[in-house]
Write a structure and sequence with these properties.
The chain is of the alpha/beta class. It is 29% helix and 27% strand. The protein has a six-stranded parallel β-sheet, with helices on both faces. It has a six-stranded parallel β-sheet with strand order 10-9-13-14-15-16, with helices on both faces. Bound molecules: ribose-5-phosphate (R5P).
């Protein structure tokens, strides 16, 4: 097996290859003066099972993944597995208003053209994977890595900010052997959310909020406020994908959250939880 790391996922690709005990080749990726992407994998051929690790966000990285799939096929890969640690457009998984695109489906259609297998990590809705018509698919859960990271941190309650992520709170809570529950969120706009007061008994508890992603940080800041109002002693946050837009890291640092950690599906200063082991396990399976 050979792992190819695209420019958006270099460190994760190296870590996955090291877990698998196989070679990792980092693609030579450059931008032409007009911004177009050029990729090259410096090998005569790749007559082996090839795993490409590359985020598809933002758009430039999606194009790079498509080009790397083509390279793998041209260099005669026996099979092509794509690992998409953070899958862009996953949240537009249906047409919410007439006239919109079904963006997540479009991404599956193009990414699946040359991939025998597709591995994602905590995809916003796992159901989206059925749009890969001709590829085997697997959504890897980061819950195991998150539970392991927090196992010595005296968490008493795991919460999700909305019912959509309740399964994630259950998964992490069960692995840690602590209670779990969810809050109820209503989204008013891309940047505004309202969270209802918690039903769970939060008094004096160390609470861990888990979510699939943080973009503006609006969701977890509002969730933390409710949990602190309900008497939580501390509130930590773990998310799989730290997208962090609109100065989110600064907002989170200045908020009442006691600590934010995310997985290394996107690399940034808060990505302290590695999913390399769980992804490597899925590749081996
Ligand atoms: C929503 O359904 C997701 O699970 C996240 O809660 C949401 O995307 C986070 O976005 P933001 O950080 O902008 O509130």
């Amino acid at each position: 097996m050979i792992v190819i790391g695209g420019s958006a996922s270099v460190n994760l690709a190296k870590d996955i290859a090291s877990e698998l005990g196989c070679e990792c080749i980092i693609s030579d990726t450059v931008r032409f003066p007009d911004g177009e992407c050029y990729v090259r994998v410096d090998r005569e051929s790749l007559e082996d099972d090839v795993v490409i690790v590359q985020n598809t966000y933002p758009d430039d990285n999606l194009v790079e993944m498509l080009l790397l799939e083509d390279v793998a096929k041209r260099l005669k890969a026996k099979s092509v597995t794509i690992v998409v640690p953070y899958f862009g457009y996953a949240r537009q998984d249906r047409v919410f208003k007439n006239g919109e695109a079904e963006s997540a489906k479009v991404m599956c259609e193009i990414l699946g053209l040359k991939a025998d297998r597709v591995i994602t990590v905590d995809l916003h809705k796992e159901d989206t994977l059925k749009e890969f018509r001709n590829s085997e698919t697997k959504d890897v859960k980061a819950a195991e890595a998150i539970a392991e990271f927090f196992k010595d941190k005296e968490v008493n309650l795991v919460m999700s900010p909305d019912i959509g992520a309740a399964g994630r709170a259950k998964d992490v809570g069960t692995r840690m052997g602590v209670e779990y529950d969810h809050l109820n969120k209503t989204r008013l706009s891309g940047t505004e959310v309202v969270i209802k007061p918690a039903n769970a008994d939060c008094k004096g508890k160390n609470i861990l909020i888990v979510d699939d992603m943080i973009a503006t940080g609006g969701t977890i800041i509002a969730a933390t406020e409710q949990l602190k109002l309900a008497g939580a002693k501390s509130v930590y946050v773990a998310c799989t994908h730290g997208v962090f837009v609109n100065n989110a890291i600064a907002r989170l640092t200045g908020s009442t959250i006691d600590g934010v950690f995310c997985c290394n599906t996107l690399e940034n200063e808060l990505s302290k939880i590695s999913v390399a082991k769980v992804v490597a396990k899925a590749i081996k399976e």
